[in-house]
Amino acid sequence: MNYMQYSSKLLEAAVDEFARLPGIGHKTALRLALYLLKQDKEVAQGFGKTIIRMCEEIRRCKICQNISDTEVCMICSDSLRDSSTICVVENIRDVMSIENTHQYRGLYHILGGIISPMDGVGPKDLYLKELDKRLEQGGVREIILALSTTMEGDTTSYYLFKRYSNPDLIISTIARGVSVGDELEYADEVTLGRSILYRTPFKSQAT
To answer: How buried is residue 22: exposed, middle or buried, by Cβ count under 10 Å (0-12/13-18/19+)?
Structure first.
């Protein structure tokens, strides 16, 4: 609860909005609001317009579900990427983490979550139909399951393994350089990069 005293309801409203952001308390929110208040109006207006434009114009790539300014994202439209390999991840931040390793040159598919019965999230809530369509089009030789090594992540990986098991398709998982219970976005680049390079067949872990 916010116990700060404000001389302006407008300032208080701005602080409350900043405090909605993850990891931002009211003291930090007040510092941000006061910083913008000290700037020229054009700075604050540009900040607001950029946020509004992002929310209104950003879209999901029709192929991999990554965020994009265009119908197809830069990764999917890059002819130099290996289109025979698809790395399956939970969210957009995982794509960014893997890209920062500079160790992977295939494509991605974002599930938009992981299976979590406790949270009411099942397979139907994930972008699986879109992945089904990509596989049906042919040309994919390997799926890399790069999900968090949590119970929910492992459950989702096993479900995907059973769903897509096919003699003509390699299903692998990142090496356990990422500690059990960790989420990909918090792994350092070297560890994550090695986990991608030294990935292992999923079947050997599922049996």
So the answer is: exposed
